[in-house]
Amino acid sequence: MSFPWAKHYEPVNPLMRYLDEKLPLPRLVYNAIGGGYPVPRNLNYMWNFGVLAGFCLVLQIVTGVVLAMHYAANAGVAFSSVEHIMRDVNWGWALRYAHANGASAFFAVIYLHIFRGFFYSSYKAPREMVWLIGVTIFLLMMATGFMGYVLPWGQMSFWGAKVITGLFGAIPVVGEPIQIWLLGGYAPDNAALNRFFSLHFLLPFVIAGAVILHIWALHIPGSSNPTGIEVKKESDTIPFHPYYTAKDGFGLGVFLILYCVMLFLLPNYLGHPDNYIEANPLSTPAHIVPEWYFWPFYAILRAFTSDFFFIPAKLMGVLAMFSAILLWFFLPWLDKGPVRSGHYRPLFRKFFWFGLIPAMAVLFYCGGAPAEEPFVMLSQLATAYYFLHFLVILPIVSMIERPDPLPYSITEAVLGEDKAAVLGENATPGV
Amino acid sequence: MIRLIGILAGLFFSVAVLWSLGNGVVAVAGQGYLKEATAESEFHLHPRELDLQSNGPFGTWDLAQLQRGFQVYKEVCAACHGLKFVAFRDLSALGYSDAEVKAIAAGFQVPGIDPNTGEATTRPGLATDYFPDPYPNAVAARAANNNAVPPDLSLMTKARHDGSAYVHSLLTGYRNLDTFSIDGKHVKDEFPDFSTPEGGHFNPYFANLNIAMPPPLTTAGQVTYAEGQPKPTVDQMAKDVSAFLTWTAEPKKVKRTQVGWPVLGFLLFATILAWFAKNQVWAAIKPKKPRVV
Fold first, then answer.
1. Backbone angles phi, psi at B124, to 5 degrees
2. Is residue B88 within 8 Å of B104, Cβ to Cβ?
3. What average pLDDT values come out for chain B (293 residues) when binned by 10 residues?
4. Distances, alpha carbon A4 to alpha carbons A50, A229, B286, in Å
């Protein structure tokens, strides 16, 4: 986005001038993340997670490509090849743990990034496209993570694949043929493992392309900010470099410390011991659970235990699990009010902190628990609230709420006063 | 329009899940209990804490203990359990010299081919070989072990919760079903139908309470330790083999934590610098008054 006051790229160094003339990549970088991109001056640390997510993507691609040099995607040797990486490949243990914990880090960062989007209504106009691409990235991440977990071919890899690919069988009429076509067989076996490896290698690059579109779409209107008020003038913004490069650098340091604590000291804490047992189609684990980042959706899937009219329970669970994410696509049109930031929406905040967050916490916990009481009943209550929150409560709240008065501008919010503040018909808060 | 469809969809899913909830509540009310208690859920014991030198973020290998543990594996466990991800050459990490490793390898028979006739046979191991499986295939393993396959032990301490402690507790945890009790409650009183099948052994540390493996460590001195080593009591042998299996599961464990601390130290230093750098960059424009949002 070029606000009229954005700085222009003026290379002094003759080499940079030459490069910029032949291929304006230096100019592109300057305008995207350098001094040429004006950003609201009041961004808080919840705005760090986008950059951290990009870092995680690069980390996963680098560690993944090197792991792929040593991994063998054949059902007979996959598990052994991972142990070969852990024991014989130089620093193989570090690569493997970096990649496995990197996936957890990536999802943790993304959930916080999405959580920011929910609270500050980042999805509202004019940033709907940023949001739509973002939800697409999340779906691609889930597919990538699911297929990646199958690759070590441990017990959880195999049985998790069996459960999730089995869901396709729930689709009426065409479900089973589709399932067999996707798997390349009647159950996860060598055919499924090979194609999962191929797609797991491909999708991160699709994600990278989507991330470029995501950032491009954001840079058209420019970043939002904690007040939810759009940028009006130069004093509302500061150049991305050096202010946010410095702030993101610090945030990256904190993230790397937490990530390295997991990698070096607690590398198997988030994993399941059963995945250190080789896949055995004849031996079902006591409890089949996916990795922690899928738990809320797994809880929703397992919450539907009774048939509903003519719809079997299994199909209800599948529809609900996918709808739980697909409904995010519609948020810009479900929650349409003019006020963005949760800071100025007291009724929205109550439902957010006392409704959505506890419901998600319950769904997270129950997703990792056995499919027994009381976890099933808790999941059912939390699932009911989840769907009511996004599809019923938010539209109604956005129609009836009375927001708190907004500051005139970002400048007023940050500095306490804005000498250019204007009253009357010229004032347009929240736009 | 979207909001209308959204509200209908929201009500559809909520009502459907609350219908499931209602059915569940009715079922639980009819049963009278939330979750059925079984012998396995009531009498399964979690592993007792095991203090190994390799435990924790500052652990190191106790090479003498690992060597004793290897001795226990070789003389007791190797008869039935494989160690297929460990190569003989890996044992040099336990402090054995090259000559000792060669001798250990040569003491095992590994699958080979007769150089004259080409038929399958066995030959003495080399350092590059992996520990051989005691049975040629799963069918032979089951036939010799009451229809149960003795699992490979390479990753056992990572394949179970609290794996190191689990192995020690399991090996020392065999009990008499008739006399075993927790808080004064006997298994036979609470669950009269529970029994140990023919060929099984009662061990409350095992998830199913009945394990096919007979107690492998029964008498002190079953394995003779070298001069200067602790006495080979059942508990000591169990501890030593747990330590050895902790090593086999992750030979790089100690190196991992030892590399981790300097990395974390550097990151802490760099992050503190980054904090001060960030504040210095922002000092020019940070407002002195507290801001609204």
1. -65, 145
2. yes
3. 93 95 93 86 94 96 98 97 98 97 97 94 96 94 94 98 97 94 88 91 95 96 95 97 98 97 98 97 79 61
4. 25, 18, 23
Nearest CA-CA partner of A335 in A320, A351, A323: A351
Choose the catalytic residue: A122, A223, A235, A341: A223
Domain locations in chain A? 37-299+326-426
User: What is the complex's ipTM, to 2 decimals?
Assistant: 0.94
Predicted pLDDT at B36: 85
User: What pLDDT score was predicted for residue B37?
Assistant: 87
pLDDT of A126 > 80? The answer is yes
Q: What is the pLDDT of residues A23-33, one digit of tens each?
A: 999 999 999 99
One-letter amino acid of B287 = P
Predicted confidence at residue B290, as pLDDT, reads: 62
Calculate mean pLDDT across residues A245-268: 98
Q: 3-state SS of A125-173?
A: CCCHHHHHHHHHHHHHHHHHHHHHHHCCCEHHHHHHHHHHHHHHHHCCC
Q: How close B124 gets to chain A, by Cα (Å)?
A: 23
The mean pLDDT value for A177-196 works out to 96
Q: Is A20 a catalytic residue?
A: no
Q: What pLDDT is stored for residue B288 in this prediction? A: 65
CB distance A105 to A98 below 8 Å? no
| pLDDT at position A425 over 50 | no
pLDDT tens digits for range A347-361 = 999 999 999 999 999
CA quadruple A36, A38, A39, A41: dihedral positive or negative?
positive
Instruction: Name the residue of chain B whose CA is nearest to A235's CA.
Output: B285
Report yes or no: B20 at the A interface, CB cutoff 8 Å.
Answer: yes
A37-299+326-426: CATH homologous superfamily? Answer: Cytochrome Bc1 Complex; Chain C (1.20.810.10)
The CA distance from A248 to A49, in Å, is 9
Is A283 noted as a catalytic residue in this protein? Answer: no
Helix (H) or strand (E) holding A237: strand A237-239
Instruction: List alpha helices for B78-233, DSSP H.
Output: 98-106, 138-144, 163-171, 187-190
Is A307 a residue of the active site? no
Q: Could you tell me what percentage of chain B is helix, strand and coil, using 3-state DSSP and rounding each to the nearest 5? A: 45, 5, 50
What gap in Å lies between CA A96 and CA A63, rounded to an integer? 8
Instruction: Give the relative orientation of helices B234-249 and B253-283 as an angle to the nearest 10 degrees.
Output: 50
What mean pLDDT value characterizes chain A? 94
Active-site choice (A20, A230, A236, A291): A291
Angle between helices A240-260 and A49-68 (to 10 degrees): 50
Contact between A38 and A6 (Cβ < 8 Å)? yes
Q: Is A140 exposed, middle or buried (0-12, 13-18, 19+ CB in 10 A)?
A: middle
Q: What pairing do the DSSP bridges indicate for beta strands B120-124 and A237-239?
A: unpaired
B-interface mutation test, from A256, A259, A389, A418, most B Cβ less than 10 A away: A256
B291: nearest CB among A83, A316, A413: A413
Interface touch B2/A387, C-beta < 8 Å: no
Residues 6+ apart with CB under 8 A from B73: B81, B83, B153, B241, B244, B245
Which residues of chain A does B57 touch, with a Cβ-Cβ cutoff of 8 Å? 265
- By C-alpha distance, which of A178, A364, A362, A182 is closest to A270? A364
Chain A hits for B155, CB-CB cut-off 8 Å, are: 83, 276-277
What pLDDT is attached to residue A257? 98
